[in-house]
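Anyone up for a design puzzle?
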């Protein structure tokens, strides 16, 4: 299931990234957003190819390596999204900054449906984004950093619990299907 979702999820993420790039450019953003977008495209292409390669190696002796490689690729994807935080500074117009923060908060939630089947891959994806959200509070909002950090921590805890429950529900469902 983890590998089957990439043909849908990765292009959808690139559509979101393209819209963010367009919004940043529309509001006078730097050319670095294009570098970010190209980087995310390269990371997504790598993840897609890795997932295709992994689908051919689903034998039990390759499973551990496949899971680790999938988690590493998810970490690269999460790091690619986390880099978006650099466009959330005070020099960025409010609307674009809000778009950056909403995207950072939303990406770990969006990743649940495709990555929570493997908690290692999910948290490899979400952790860099969680760090970026808290980093954003401290770097760009020092006057409200404690409040933002507390809210971000509550969000992270809630999403983490959701990921765990999603994973356990999927595991139980698959287990029941195998038993029947």
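Challenge accepted. My sequence:
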């Amino acid at each position: 299931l983890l590998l089957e979702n990439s043909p849908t999820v990765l292009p959808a993420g690139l559509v979101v990234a393209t819209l963010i790039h367009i919004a940043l450019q529309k509001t006078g953003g730097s050319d670095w957003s294009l570098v970010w977008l190209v980087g995310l495209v390269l990371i997504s292409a790598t993840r897609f190819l890795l997932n295709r390669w992994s689908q051919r190696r689903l034998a039990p002796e390759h499973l551990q390596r496949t899971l680790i490689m999938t988690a590493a690729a998810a970490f690269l994807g999460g790091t690619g999204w986390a880099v978006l935080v650099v466009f959330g500074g005070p020099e960025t117009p409010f609307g674009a900054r809000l778009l950056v923060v909403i995207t950072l908060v939303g990406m770990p939630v969006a990743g649940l449906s495709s990555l929570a089947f493997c908690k290692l891959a999910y948290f490899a994806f979400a952790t860099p984004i969680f760090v970026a959200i808290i980093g954003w509070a401290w770097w760009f909002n020092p006057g409200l950093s404690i409040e933002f950090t507390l809210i971000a921590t509550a969000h992270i805890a809630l999403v983490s619990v959701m990921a765990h429950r999603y994973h356990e529900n999927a595991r139980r469902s698959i287990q029941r299907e195998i038993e029947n």
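A detail worth pointing out: Helices lie at 6-26, 32-55, 60-82, 94-110, 112-115, 119-140, 145-179.
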